[in-house]
Structures are given as structure tokens and as C-alpha cells.
Amino acid sequence: xxTYNVIIMKxxxxxxxxYDIADLLEIKGELVFKFVAYRRAAQVIEALSRDIExxxxxxxxxxxxxxxxxIAKKVVEYxxxxxxxxxxxxxxxxxxGFGELLALEGIGPKKVKLFLxxxxxxxxxxxxxxxxxKLRKIPxxxxxxxxxxxxSIEYAKKRGGRMLLGHALLLxxxxxxxxxxxxxxxxxxxxxxxxxxxxxIGDIDILVTSAKPGAVIDYFTKMENVxxxxxxxxxxxxxxxxxxxxxxxxxxxxxxxxxxxxxFTGSKEHNIELRKMAISQKMKLSEYxxxxxKFVAGRSEEEVYRKLGLQYIEPEMRESxxxxxxxxxxxxxxxxxxxxxxxxxxxxxxxxDGKNTVEEMALAAKKLGYEYICIADHIGHLTIANALDKxxxxxxxxxxxxxNKKLDxxxxxxxxxxxxxxxxxxxDNQTLEKLDIVxxxxxxxxKAGEERNTKRIIGAMENPxxxxxxxxSGRLIDQREGSLLNMEKIIDKSKETNTILEVDAxxxxxxxxxxxxxxxxxxGCKIAIDTDAHSVDQLRFMNIGVGTARRGWxxxxxxxxxxxxxxxxxxLK
Length: 573
Ligand code: DGT
Ligand code: CA
Ligand code: CA
Ligand code: ZN
Prior knowledge:
Blueprint: H1 6-27, H2 32-47, H3 52-57, H4 69-81, H5 85-92, H6 98-102, H7 109-117, H8 123-131, H9 142-159, E1 163-164, H10 165-180, E2 188-190, H11 192-195, E3 200-201, E4 204-209, H12 213-221, E5 226-232, E6 236-241, E7 246-252, H13 257-265, H14 268-280, E8 284-286, E9 289-291, E10 295-297, H15 301-307, H16 323-329, E11 343-347, H17 358-367, E12 372-375, E13 378-379, H18 390-406, E14 410-418, H19 429-433, E15 437-441, H20 450-462, E16 468-469, H21 487-497, E17 500-504, H22 514-522, E18 527-530, H23 542-551, H24 565-572
Helix pairs in contact: 1-2, 1-5, 1-7, 8-9, 13-15, 20-21, 22-23
One calcium ion (CA) binds next to helix 11.
């Protein structure tokens, strides 16, 4: 059911090892050229469109840019043993808490090195030092850094050990794929927060039916991806996967599959509400089924909901946010589906910081069944992202015109313009006017405060050329809390100026989130769901964008990229 490319996973694993090595070398005070080389190799491998393992098998590792013999040795070791002794040895010399320090937003190896020199060895000690005002006394740090560090620590605490939805789906897809190879597995479904498409996932829950539960459990605990078995019984098991995530498997009889799927999909709050409802009808609902004095239903979710007197409720809506009330009245909205989406309005190409050409992006989008795409490369003066100026935009336009004659998909020329700290757009109006679609977004000064950031966005919305506000809050789920915004004002402005708010489907963004989607559509405003893809593989993250929109109860008509091209463009006017 999930169609991810497992190829990237391997490349990312290897890149992660190399990034970690680079960080540790830097923390240990090694020479700059050494750790920079590891970091560069990691960047290259991460972006490869071929599986690093295949490249290795073909004996072509030397051809990969930036991979010299020393680094190649570490890559080979990892590919062959799934371990890196070199990395493990590097870690041995450091106190165990260095990892949590390094994971903090705004903290890189350079600062960790500094902390360790000052005998600050873990998060707790860092927090204590910051609270005691000791960090500001370190010459290179200062008061502002100390304050930022305290904020990062708060954020890290809230986040806990959770995985991004996009990445958890990849993993779950691999596990489901493995399990399906076992002929004893009949039905199989992910459940839990993963099925509800929550933005982060605590653990992966999978349910199956089988006539031979023992055999399935045995197979599950011995899968390649499993690092250790946490618990194992006749019909269920919990394992620790190699990336540290937990996965739970439960084997169920056919008769209970629907009620168990409901139970383990949750949310807990939704389940509790349903159970109360059952009781009020003199019934009892549990994972084993719906009962009066006898078994009433349990085989399928549809049947259980029906016997409770409810419409079927989509997993993404099961959050106890009013869905049960509506289901009682038969008034649930029909939420948008992945195959309603016929275009993607935000993606990058090699013209700015993307990994694939415009043509490659277009062909990949065509394969996904899209009718149109918008290449929205960075424009203006953002130097890091290789932003396009007026001249290069003209050249890009020519390329897009040619491709539009050649390909069976419409390519729009857009641009993603930065909203500067002072609220002005990083590109002149005459240039913006020539683009088919203009996206504006915050990339810097996110900590400017609610009032200023809201003003920055509203200012951009008032520019008649701006069509879409991309990833409005600018948050990165695993690194940085977004800018505080007054969403009410922004939604009002969306209504007034017809500027569309985006759901950006990058796994670490999912921005807007579900709650803001719901607020937006309840005010009668439309949204766009875009991948912000920087490579062809990332186009597939549309599914988590759609998942987020579904969690916000968006219907097909609320989403502009479900409309035919002409209508969509009119909606942007
Ligand atoms: P996660 O893993 O933290 O991202 O969130 P979930 O929702 O996947 O939670 P998890 O894995 O602890 O449990 C899976 C589902 O099982 C959960 O969504 C609802 C159900 N469940 C778990 N514990 C309870 C409980 O104590 N009461 C009820 N009613 N349901 C529960
Ligand atoms: Ca779970
Ligand atoms: Ca679980
Ligand atoms: Zn972008």
C-alpha cells in the first residue's frame, strides 16, 4: 500500500554513518580537511539516485564523487557488516551523553567540543549550566546563545524519541513487504499513529491474520531489520529495529480483525468515546468485538461502526475532535484522497538546490499520474540555495517552454521567494509578475516573534503577485520550532486576498499542520498540498501531505491541486 523506494533508505543509512563520523572527528579536534571530507562524501551519497549497495557490487564505489579509498573502506565495512567499527571506536572515547548534546537544535560538533572541554557531558549538565548563567561566561557563546540553548532543550524534551511519519512509513512499508513474503500471513495492516498519519510516530503497530500465529511471530522476530526482541508471546511480539524504533506485531483471528484494527488504530481518545457509546446502547466494545449478550460484530471495521449506528470514520479523523458526533448524524465530510490530487505546485530542480533536472521532475510527475506541475525554484538573493535571478529565470523559462512542447504534462514556471526579515520580498515585482505562480516563504529570522512574523506573512499576502504561502510556520519537526504566528489573522488575509496556504509535505515540515488545515478550510479558504520535492524520489511524499490534509478534514474541493489546470489557475487569481 505504501509505494516508497527502499533504495534511498540504504543511501541514507550510509550517509548517516559518514555524517556521524565527521561530527565525531570534529568533536575530537581532528584536522578540518579530514572531517570535511567525510561530510562531503555523506552529502553526495545521500543524494545518489542509485543504491549505494548496487554501486558497490558493481565495483564502482571509487567513481562516486568525494569517496576516496579511506572513506570507501568505511562504506564497504558498513555495507557488509551493517556496522562501523571505526565509528564505534570514535564513540568509545566520548561520554555517553554527547549524542543528546549534538541532537540539539543549533548545536553542532564545534559547540559540543567546547562543552566537553568545560566538563559539560550531557543534556542535564548543559541545562543546569545554562540555568545558572554559566554558559554566557564562555567567551564564544554569550547570553543570547545561552537563551537559545535553553529553548532547544525545552523543545528536545517535548519531542521525545519519535520518528517522522514519512520515515516511519518507509520502514513500515519494508516490514509489511517482508511479512507479506511469508505465506502464513493473510491480511495485514499497519495500525496506530502511523495509520492515522500523525506527524510523528512513537512505535510501529502492525496487525495480521493467520492460521499459524506462532510461525508468523517467529518469522517476524527473525527479520533482517530486527536488532533485538523486546517481548515475544504466542500471538504477539515487540522488537527493536536496527534504527532504534520499536515495532509491535499482533496476530488475530479473522473474526476479531476489524475490532482489533479499530482498537489498535486508536486514537485512545476516539476508542474511549466509542466504548461509551456502546455502553449507552447496552453493548460492549473491545478489541475482541462488539457484544450485546452475544457477538454482534468484529470481522471488519465497517461492520463495527455500522452496528454502533455510525458512518465509517477514516483513520485520519479518529482523534476525538467531533468526528463521532458527525458520524452519528451521517454528516462526515468526504475527505480528500491521494488520487484526487492531479498536480504538485512546489518542487525544485537543478536550477536551484534540487537534485534533478526540470525534465526529470516532469517525467517522474507524469508517472505519478499528474496533469501539471510547478517548478518553484528559489529565486532572489538567497545565496545558499543557489537562487535564480531575473536573467537565469528567463533562461529557465525557455527551457520550460521547450519541454512543454515535448512532454505530455504541463510545466508551470513558479518561484519560491524569501520573505526577508524586514518583511520585503527578495525579488522585484516586475520579475514576479512574469512567473505563473509565486510562492513566498519564511526561511530566516523565525524567532522574530509572533507579531513581526505575522506581519511579514501578511505583507507577502498583500503583494498581488504572491499566490501561495509555502510552509507558513517554517518549522522543522525534528530540529526547530517554527515561527509563532497569529493564524487567525493569516487565515482572514487568505480569505481577503485569495492567497493560498500550503501544506508542505516534506517529512520534517508537514507545515501547515492538521489543526491549521482545519481552521483554514472552516473559514472557507482553500489549501495547496505540495511536496517541495528536491529530487524525483521526494515527489512521493505527497501521501503524507494528503494525510495531513485529511487529518484537517479537507475535502477534494478544498484543495486547489485537485482542480483541472484552468480552474486551478483561476482559483489563484
Ligand atoms: P504512538 O505509537 O505513540 O505514535 O501512538 P499510537 O496511537 O500508535 O499508540 P500505541 O502504539 O501506544 O497504541 C496503539 C493503539 O492502541 C492506540 O492508538 C490506541 C490503542 N491503545 C493503546 N493503549 C490503549 C489504552 O490504554 N486504551 C485504549 N482505549 N486504547 C489503547
Ligand atoms: Ca504506535
Ligand atoms: Ca505500539
Ligand atoms: Zn521549496
